[in-house]
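Private note to self, pasted from the team thread so I don't lose it. Backbone tokens:
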């Protein structure tokens, strides 16, 4: 019987302080919206996704890690500012609520493009849309009435989120996602530090460098 594939993605991990700020922002946004209009993401499950891989045979993991290492090797650590509120695709037809990352560092954009290229060599489709880094706060329930959706759209137009903190991007992480009835559980399988090309398997990074300011 073939082994069950792993559901994988590559992302930047957030620190606990920023996760707490995201949780507070969620509570403030939730208070401004109609009740039960949104399914909220758990703050401890929020990541900055760089590449979603989906169902992947376990034996392909070493090649993915090697691609991560090569993608990360040519770019220095950087820092991201987390601020601003947005909706995909737009407030009139809201589906995803998020906070953004203005002033995108060129290093992060380079890492994302390099990842996309290396993963395409392993058979994963290239991204067709421009990279739009964001942190998902929640997803709109799709069972609401037309009146409820109209009220939600009006409320979203009044939501504002200031600066929540900063993310030190020192490594990229390969995560496994296990979908469970009470929500997804994420496990770090491998890490690749920026600027070194030396990835480490497991949950603890090594050879970490502080971001340049």
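Design output:
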């Amino acid at each position: 019987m073939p082994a069950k594939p792993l559901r994988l993605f590559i992302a930047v991990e957030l620190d606990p302080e920023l996760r707490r700020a995201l949780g507070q922002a969620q509570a403030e946004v939730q208070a401004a919206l109609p009740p039960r209009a949104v399914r909220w993401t758990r703050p401890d499950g929020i990541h900055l996704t760089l590449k979603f891989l989906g169902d992947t045979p376990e034996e392909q993991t070493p090649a993915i890690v090697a691609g991560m290492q090569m993608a990360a090797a040519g770019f220095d650590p950087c820092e991201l500012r987390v601020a601003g509120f947005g909706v995909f695709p737009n407030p009139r037809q809201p589906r995803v609520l998020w906070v953004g990352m203005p002033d995108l560092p060129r290093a992060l954009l380079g890492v994302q493009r390099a990842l996309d290229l290396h993963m395409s060599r392993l058979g994963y489709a290239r991204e067709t849309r421009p990279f739009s880094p964001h942190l998902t706060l929640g997803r709109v329930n799709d069972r609401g009435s037309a009146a409820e959706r109209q009220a939600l759209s009006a409320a979203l137009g009044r939501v504002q989120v200031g600066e929540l903190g900063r993310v030190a991007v020192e490594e990229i992480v390969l995560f496994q996602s296990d979908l469970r009835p009470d929500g997804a559980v994420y496990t770090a399988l491998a890490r690749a530090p920026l600027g070194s090309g030396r990835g480490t398997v497991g949950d603890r990074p090594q050879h970490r460098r502080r971001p340049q300011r």
